[in-house]
Amino acid sequence: MKMDFSQLSPEELEELIKAAAQERAKRSPAVPEKAPGTVDAYTDPAWLIAGHMQGAIFNFRHPGMGWISFAIPPHETVKMRDLLNRICEELGYTGPGKTRAH
């Protein structure tokens, strides 16, 4: 199905994207739990992470879909922290603009 969105304003597109995402969430089959082997990833998105009583809120800015937010429970927040620490260690990353000597 081909649709022409060229006449829609940015606000109308945002409303359409949000409505389409909400409708997709209701459909079967559901989006797979496992991520695909390859993905289209955006490099260095704007992000914000805030503590929350039930864990953390992760916000990432997607250039086409806007801000996407996820509420992450405490046990998953800890798993993410540990994984990020391990990745930094494996890559030799020690801080802003710094890498460990090899």
Describe the overall structure.
By secondary structure, this protein is an alpha+beta fold. It contains two helices and five strands; from the N terminus they run H-E-E-E-H-E-E. The protein has helices at 10-26, 74-91; strands spanning 47-52, 55-62, 66-72, 93-95, 98-99. It has a three-stranded antiparallel beta sheet with strand order 1-2-3. The protein has a two-stranded antiparallel sheet with strand order 4-5. The mean pLDDT is 90.
Summary keywords:
102 residues; alpha+beta; 3-stranded antiparallel beta sheet; two-stranded antiparallel ribbon; 2 helices; 5 strands
Secondary structure layout:
Elements lengths: L9 H17 L20 E6 L2 E8 L3 E7 L1 H18 L1 E3 L2 E2 L3
Antiparallel strand pairs: 1-2, 2-3, 4-5
What is the oligomeric state here?
A: single chain
Could you tell me the mean pLDDT?
A: 90
User: Over all CA atoms, what is the radius of gyration?
Assistant: 18 Å
Strand content range: 25-35%
